[in-house]
Amino acid sequence: MAVSRIFWDTNLFIYLIEDYGELSERVVALRKRMLKRNDQLYTSTLTLGEVLVKPAEAGNELLRQKYEEALAGGAVLVPFDREAARAYAEIRRDRTIRPPDGIQLACAAQARVDLFITNDDRLSEKTIPGIQFLTSLQRAFL
C-alpha cells in the first residue's frame, strides 16, 4: 500500500484537540483513517505557532502541552526556509491568497505533499506546483 504525504492546515489540528462538534469528529475519523493507511502527516512550523496563540493568551499550559505533543508526536513539521520562501513568492503572485495561507502552501509544496487539507474552500480551488491535490475538510476523500 502506498503511503501518502498529507498536509494539514492549522484549523484541522484545532478541531483535533479542541471540541468543535462535527468538525472534530470528522478530523478524528480522518486521522484514524490516515493511521490505518500508514499515511504521513505533515504541517508547518507556522501551524505550531498558530495553535499556541490561544493557550498563550489564556495562560493555559495544559492546552499548550496537548498541541505540542500532538504536533511533535504525530506530524512532520516543515520549516519555512529559503526554498519555501521562494515558493511563497511565487504563490503570493496570486494576491487572493493571504500571507499565512501562502506560507502553509509553500511549506507543503516544499515537502512535495500528495494532499493538502484545509477548511478554507477558497484554497481548495487553487493549483500549486509541488502539491498534488488541495481539498477542503468536507471533501477530503480518504
List the helices and strands and how they pair.
Elements: E1 5-8, H1 10-17, H2 22-37, E2 40-44, H3 45-51, H4 53-58, H5 61-74, E3 76-78, H6 82-91, H7 99-110, E4 115-118, H8 121-124, E5 133-136
Parallel strand pairs: 1-2, 1-4, 2-3, 4-5
Helix pairs in contact: 1-2, 1-3, 6-7
Structure description:
The chain is an alpha/beta fold and 142 residues long. It has a single domain, classed as 5'-nuclease (Rossmann fold). Helix content is 54%, strand content 14%. The protein contains 8 helices and 5 strands, in the order βααβαααβααβαβ. The protein has helices at residues 10-17, 22-37, 45-51, 53-58, 61-74, 82-91, 99-110, 121-124; strands at 5-8, 40-44, 76-78, 115-118, 133-136. The protein has a 5-stranded parallel beta sheet with strand order 3-2-1-4-5, sandwiched between helices. Strand 4 (115-118), helix 8 and strand 5 form a beta-alpha-beta unit. Helix 1 packs across helix 3. The longest helix is centred in the first third of the chain and has 16 residues, at 22-37. It is globular and about 40 Å long. 37% of the residues are buried. The model has no long low-confidence stretch (mean pLDDT 94).
Q: What structural class results from the helix and strand content?
A: alpha/beta
User: Could you tell me the number of beta strands?
Assistant: 5
> Could you give the order of strands across the largest sheet?
3-2-1-4-5
Low-confidence stretches: none
Q: What's the gyration radius in Å?
A: 14 Å
Question: Which bin fits the share of residues in helices?
Answer: 40-55%
Q: In the CATH hierarchy, what is the class?
A: Alpha Beta
What is the CATH T-level topology? Rossmann fold
Number of domains: 1
Largest sheet: 5 strands, parallel
Question: Helical region count?
Answer: 8
- Oligomeric state as shown: single chain
Which architecture does the CATH hierarchy give at level 2? Answer: 3-Layer(aba) Sandwich
Shape: globular
The share of residues in extended strands comes to 5-15%
The CATH superfamily name is: 5'-nuclease
Mean pLDDT over all positions: 94
